[in-house]
């Protein structure tokens, strides 16, 4: 009998690591994980918030959808657990936030949404025409540059009303990246960035703000993330592809085709992402205005204000969920699930996360209890049988 008890006790010690993996997904305390940034990814992030809480009821996600630029500022101030952005960190961002890892989280499309009474989706626009509209050089909907690619469509003799972002925006970064690539005039006079000196137009806060302006203003045009367009039942343009041989509707498949052409040449999570771009990739079915979205997180989580070792474990658990189980919600919200090669970048990045320079422990409270029971059992048997077991703790 003594040998049986000793055997069971040692078995408990051996299975503690396996149990600790399960325990790492559980917690006896409540934590709020804080994130901020991209409005582009908000529909997906909010779904993750709800679905994750269903299986981890002690974990709340507080995500502030305030724009990529504002989210990165809070990251630099070390006041959030992570930032979300549709724009990678620039060289100056890295100087302000050294030691940040970039974890891809989703892929989405940016539509050219418009409000033309009596005209459904599918207005055909080339990249140079879009650039000229947003520069204020094409000012009327019946301009020959628009009419020539839309024969048979009765375009109104009405002024084009332009809506753009008023806040620092990753959506703006990706949109102006596209315009800079297809229009030398735009690249020289306006350029690319989370904020740019818009030549014309009215600003709206977030994707929701631009969507609202376009939807409520006849003859307006703006750039809006694909999910917002479908949620708000808006009309949108088909945009000429990089090959110049077709006008492509923004859909899950066409955004995925654009992303697939670029996803094989991405840096590591701790690499330089400042030049990463997936816009205007070749392919007859590639929608040309697409972007990766990212989570930015400090490699050493202890640098975040108020972070604890236990909470940092929950942050890592949530980010692992985003990379894996959370991807099942992407397609339904018109985001492209991450390809395996891109997931691997995120997995390798999360493996680098530390707390005060040390690995974040997976040894949870349930495992600790099991180990304590095992040790007590061994000591009790030792005392009764005279085996002389005396652990040094």
Outline:
With 393 residues, this protein is of the alpha/beta class.
Walk me through what this model shows.
- The protein has 393 residues and is an alpha/beta fold.
- Helices cover 40% and strands 18% of the residues.
- The protein folds into two domains: 2-106 and 293-359, Periplasmic binding protein-like II (D-Maltodextrin-Binding Protein, domain 2, 3-Layer(aba) Sandwich); 109-265, Periplasmic binding protein-like II (D-Maltodextrin-Binding Protein, domain 2, 3-Layer(aba) Sandwich), CATH 3.40.190.
- It has helices spanning 2-23, 42-55, 68-76, 91-96, 127-135, 144-147, 170-182, 184-189, 206-216, 226-231, 252-260, 309-323, 340-350, 365-385, and strands spanning 31-37, 59-65, 82-85, 100-114, 124-125, 161-165, 202-204, 220-225, 235-236, 238-240, 247-248, 290-298, 354-355, 358-359.
- It is elongated and about 65 Å long.
- Strand 1 (31-37), helix 2 and strand 2 form a beta-alpha-beta unit.
Helix content: 25-40%
Number of strands: 14
**CATH topology value of the largest domain:** D-Maltodextrin-Binding Protein, domain 2
The biggest sheet amounts to: 9 strands, mixed
Q: Briefly, what CATH class of the largest domain?
A: Alpha Beta
Shape: elongated
| Range of strand content | 15-25%
- List the secondary-structure elements in sequence, H or E: HEHEHEHEEHHEHHEHEHEEEHEHHEEH
């Amino acid at each position: 009998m003594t040998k049986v008890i000793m055997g069971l006790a040692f078995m408990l010690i051996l299975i503690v690591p396996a149990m600790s993996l399960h325990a790492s997904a559980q917690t006896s305390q409540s934590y709020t994980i804080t994130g901020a940034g991209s409005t582009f990814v908000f529909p997906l992030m909010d779904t993750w918030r709800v679905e994750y809480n269903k299986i981890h009821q002690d974990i709340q996600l507080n995500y502030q959808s305030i724009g990529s630029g504002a989210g990165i500022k809070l990251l630099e101030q070390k006041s959030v657990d992570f930032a979300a952005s549709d724009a990678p960190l620039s060289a100056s961002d890295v100087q302000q936030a050294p030691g940040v890892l970039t974890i891809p989280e989703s892929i989405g499309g940016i539509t050219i949404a418009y409000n033309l009474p009596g005209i459904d989706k599918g207005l055909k626009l080339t990249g140079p025409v879009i650039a000229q509209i947003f520069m204020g050089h094409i000012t009327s909907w019946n301009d020959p540059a628009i009419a020539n690619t839309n024969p048979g469509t009765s375009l109104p003799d009405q002024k084009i009303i332009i809506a753009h972002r008023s806040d620092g925006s990753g959506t703006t970064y990706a949109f102006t990246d596209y315009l800079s690539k297809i229009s030398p005039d735009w690249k020289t006079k306006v350029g690319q960035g989370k904020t740019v000196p818009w030549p014309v137009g009215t600003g709206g806060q977030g994707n929701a703000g631009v969507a609202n302006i376009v939807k409520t203003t006849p003859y307006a045009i703006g750039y809006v993330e694909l999910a917002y367009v479908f949620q708000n039942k808006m009309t949108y343009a088909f945009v000429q592809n990089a090959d110049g041989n077709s006008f492509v509707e923004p859909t899950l498949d066409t955004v995925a085709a654009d992303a697939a052409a670029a996803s094989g040449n991405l840096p590591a999570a701790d690499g330089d992402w400042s030049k990463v771009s997936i816009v205007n990739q070749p392919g007859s079915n590639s929608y040309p205005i697409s972007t990766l979205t990212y989570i930015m997180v400090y490699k050493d989580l202890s640098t975040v204000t108020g972070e604890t070792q236990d909470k940092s474990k929950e942050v890592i658990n949530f980010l692992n969920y985003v990379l894996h189980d959370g991807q099942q919600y992407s397609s339904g919200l018109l985001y492209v699930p991450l390809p395996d090669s891109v997931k691997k970048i995120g997995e390798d990045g999360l493996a680098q996360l530390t707390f005060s320079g040390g690995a974040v422990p997976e040894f949870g409270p349930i495992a600790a209890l099991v180990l304590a029971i095992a040790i007590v059992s061994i000591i009790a048997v030792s005392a009764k049988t005279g085996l002389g077991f005396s652990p040094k703790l």
